[in-house]
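Practice set, problem 2.
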Amino acid sequence: MAKTLSTTTIETVKATVPALEAHGLEITQRMYARLFENEHIRALFNQSHQDGGSSQPKALAGAILAYARHIDQLEVLGAAVERIAQKHTGLQILPEHYPFVATTLLGAIKDVLGDAATEDVLAAWGEAYWFLADLLIGREADIYRQQEEAPGGWRGWRNFVIADVRRESDVITSFLLEPQDGEPVLRHRPGQYLTFALAVPGQGEVRRNYSISSAPADDHYRISVKREPHGAASGWLHEEAKPGTVLKVAPPAGEFFLPEKVERPVVLLSGGVGLTPMVSMLHRLGAEAAETDVHFVHGAQNGKAHALKAEVAEIAGNCPHVKTAFFYAEPLPEERAGADFDAPGFIGLDWLAQNTPLGAADFYLCGPKPFLRTYVQGLAAAGVSPDRIHYEFFGPADDLLAA
């Protein structure tokens, strides 16, 4: 692998930015169509992100455009590359998968741009692709090795048995997972997720990430899964998975987690099922010394959709340094502010400024894209330093490079 990209390649790739702005989505749609002709490669992707031909292709188009724009200053993309490497290790992406993407991407560029995709352009993009791919392959090798060598760690898929199933709300169910071999498990970092290879009838093997919602432990994990409309994996888990069901699980992954030492106040801000990694974080923070103030702020539709409420309240009740606030966008007629929840509507930035240490805290956010767009941008506009805004969202990994 070249340690640096050639000047010619950098100039040529940057010159393709206008073409990518105009035709990027068409290129990635064509690329995925080519890529999914291979059933093995197709199984690595969440097909719900392909429905309508927009989500994953749009995300990748944005990622490619971001790469082209910043190819002479790749340090800008460092954090995004780490997130993608973490996603890849969860999905068990291996070095042998990368040539398939290279071939289909360059072929799609040629298909869409036609004569404008000269040999020089294709050669430059080939060099640029493999430069980034080799960075990812190297980082992923490190992650795989660290996961395998850590106490309780493993590489690849490991069988876990569902030990318990608990309905947490009308739409979210928790699954307690214990290793089938009875050996210890890798203690996760609060905020990380597990990746599953699920054998769903009529769908084949599907791979999904679910945040760990339990406290770090040596013998089990817990995930809390929202049933998504038309969700192949979440629907199967809610309908078919039961105590005794065996699931294939990859080691905990993800760069969104609490640091080993928390030195500032913490605000855990979530929407909907985005509370799952926050509950894991809260377990750890609640167990620590009361030197650090913790604010758990969550928005739900109403009490029927609000999961893990009693668990969060119990932690807060035992920890004077933990404060909670629950917002209901559409409270049920029988629900009362001040009793069943704290305030109606959505979490306001003004409320955060008045009720949390806005200028002194680290903010951890998780929720759907509109939620993150509102609060990541809103907190930054309110003067919160970008290095104190940490977030995780559910969507295509390529979104991370485009962000």
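Problem 2, part (b): a different protein.
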Amino acid sequence: MSIPSIQRLGGVQNAIAVASERTGIDFNYLLGQAQVESGLRPNARAGTSSATGLYQFIEQSWLGVVKQHGAEHGLGWAADSIRQTGSGRFVVSDPAARRAILDLRNDPAAASLMAAEHASDNKDALEASLGRAATGTDLYMAHFLGIGGAKKFLSAMDANSGRSAASLFPAAARANRNVFYTAEGRARSLGEVYQRFAAKLDKGAAAGGGTGLASDALDAGDPNVEVVLGTGAANGDRDWLASTLDRLKAAQPAAATGSLLRPNPQNARLAYLMLASLGG
């Protein structure tokens, strides 16, 4: 499922490809997830929750993953601004910093990196629990039900795939009736729910220009993946690359300026891609 090269992609797909390369999470899975969650729209917003952005992170999930992984990707200022209370809630005392951190959900580069890191954490936890390699669909179950719910779902499905999913997850079934029940009102089995998510991921990856199945077993990706915008790219895509680092830097509180763009191989590569696409 690794991808030897990706050329002339739009800005969103480029961001996903870079996140895949930097984290080892499969490109097709990340692409399929983004298509399912937001239709590849960086500014997508849910009408019933705080879910926002390419991967529809709710506020607490976003603050948690930025706290854990932000510093690895030049967002140390954000990670340092977030603290976890005794009850487990993530908070930011400075309202301006909190707004800046949450606004990063709408940036394809930041959202893709944090989604990939979150998927990597879930992959490790699921594989340790299940004793087998995780698939893209397994990761999406963790996204949908949380890591505890995914472990429960997948273990139960291994034991009896024909069991009613709604009987095992009544609260989730009430909130997501179309997932757990057919249009006629029949309760779907665990296997049926799983296969529906697999089909959605694969369809999403194909719609976004993916090169393989998003639902399949995950590999580490190709370390030599080439992410190139190309000279024939649309002006909007070049503008996206040219403004990505500027937008992230501008979102920081003034005191944190410079930490995002600290020199490291990853940031140097992003800068190179930007300059190359603009003919620099």
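Answer key, part (b): The beta strands are 5-7, 82-84, 90-92, 226-228. Confidence is low (pLDDT under 50) at residues 1-8, 220-242, 251-280.
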